[in-house]
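Per reviewer request, we include the raw input and output of the structure prediction for the construct analysed in the revised manuscript.
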Amino acid sequence: MIQITTGVPIDYVPQDLYQWGLALGDYEWWASRYCPIADKETTEPHPLRLNASQQYLKWYIETFRNDYGGGNYLVYKGRQFGMSTMIDTMFAHQATKGPGFRAMVFAHETSAADNLLSIIRRPYWNMPESQLLPSGDNVTLKPAGQHRENKKELWVYFDGDRTRESRVMIEEATAGETAGAGFALNALHFSEVGKDAFDDGRAIGIAMQTLSMDALVFAEGTANGAYGWMYNTWQEVWDEFRQFRLVHKHKPEIKWNSWVPVFLPWFWHYGYPGGLRFPLAEHEEIKAETEWEERAMSGENTYLHYKCTPENIKAMRYLFNNRIKSAASDSGLSAEEYRVQEYPSNPEEGFIVSGSTFFTKEILREGMRFAREYCNTHEILKYKWDLGGFKEDKYGEFRFIKEPEPDKFKYVVSGDVASGQENKDWDTAQIIEIRANGPNILIGYWRAHESDKYMHAILMRDLAEWCKASVVAIENNVEGGSVNDHLRLMGCRGLYVATPEDEGSFQAGFTKRYGWHTSQKSRGIMLGQLQASLRRWYESPSDPDGLVVPFPEIWNEAQAFVRIHGKAQATRGANDDLIMGSAIGNSVAIDTVPKKAPKKDDPYDATIRHYTAIGMKTAVNFYKKLRKVSSG
């Protein structure tokens, strides 16, 4: 088990060999003596003292160790928090404590690898060979080391034969399968995992195979769009870990054995006690001058509803004028977009692809907020399908917020069919409930890989029969044509049929086609309709032309849906299957299915309106919307 603290205070002065051993074993004490650092706020090197964000990560390490004493920590941070400095000097500390320690650090590019190497070696170079204690004992501090110009590593040994040694090695993410070969690693650090080099997760997966049982693993980075390994992994564990922490308060014996997500917002570092201070001058007052500052100071759009202080705002104004503006111009982003990406206030906004998102960023933020709020407070039903129908199953691939009620409502079943790209494309189904007195609701979805298109067709038929769907609209492009043909031969009720009158449906010479045909023209229409339906819901929770989407997984895809050379599509490494299926269903619901009034006093309808309103509370024009809802 790796121990990073012995509880010795930083100002502790050891008097004998025993006390010196305790002091050297404590990372913070050791770092404050032998890790001089220079940062952008100072001109001279100064001792490393852990800032507020670094202390927060240290607390996570000590609190959420796994069953074996190690842990995997996924750190999502703003810029210049000093995470690499802390993690890599911690590795150097472990290496100088004694033999048998093996660690590897992965950088996203060569220049970054050189910088990380200097961080790791600097403490070793600054350690004196020995220290004379007040007791008269002379203690050896610095183990012997070997320097090889062609190797990026810190290699120290504790005997003349160089058999009892410790090493910290640097590799680039492109190193391939040889990285870490031959070693049982005690620690790993993946630096800037939001960068392109880590997108496919291959380097991370290979390196993780070399770990010992008690290993500490850190993957840290700044968000770089809603795609790639960092984004996907964060989305997988963030909500589950929040639920775990609620249970952990009452059952501390329960352990977490997956990635521990650690979010570090900008305001816990800039203008925060223990971080970089921006003290106010005498009689200086800081008041909100922009909408962004007003929301930050009120806690409306900040992590844990933290209310930014005048010091925080002063710090951000400095960053905005001296760093963000110039960096944004070099990156091609606006200053506001760059601030959101590089200095996030909450876990959602930094991942929203900066630049040309298809859906408005405000709608993306509030939509995700609403979906998370709803799923955290309501049971999500899971179903498994087989030839006998649908059965509740905690591992089922179907997700519903409620069962279909065909005696009360009409339904549209839509779907996107995978094009055969293994693991890169999904088969999906969406179930939209048609409501007369409010927005339509996407009550359920399915996402999986079903290579047998005949079985896929049976599944869609059974789903349509369960809902007594008014329309079944499955995309007929590529593999979808097979699914639609099987549905036609099965006599599927309500199967969508395109005719020459449908704009952009197909080439001349055909009289009709089963299934939804996505052409350049129909694609633009259906995506525009989805965009409008989400906006109508956002602007007024009870708008009958809106669409309620209570699933975070669909909003995840929406965040990564961008304009590339004028075309709306998923950004690289991301999927759009749920978005396309939802767009088809929404378009069909608008154009072909008349609304059917629900029974009076429908409690579910009231619940949706309530949680939609919660999701809207941080919108700028909330009070205007509230007046609309109350008057309607």
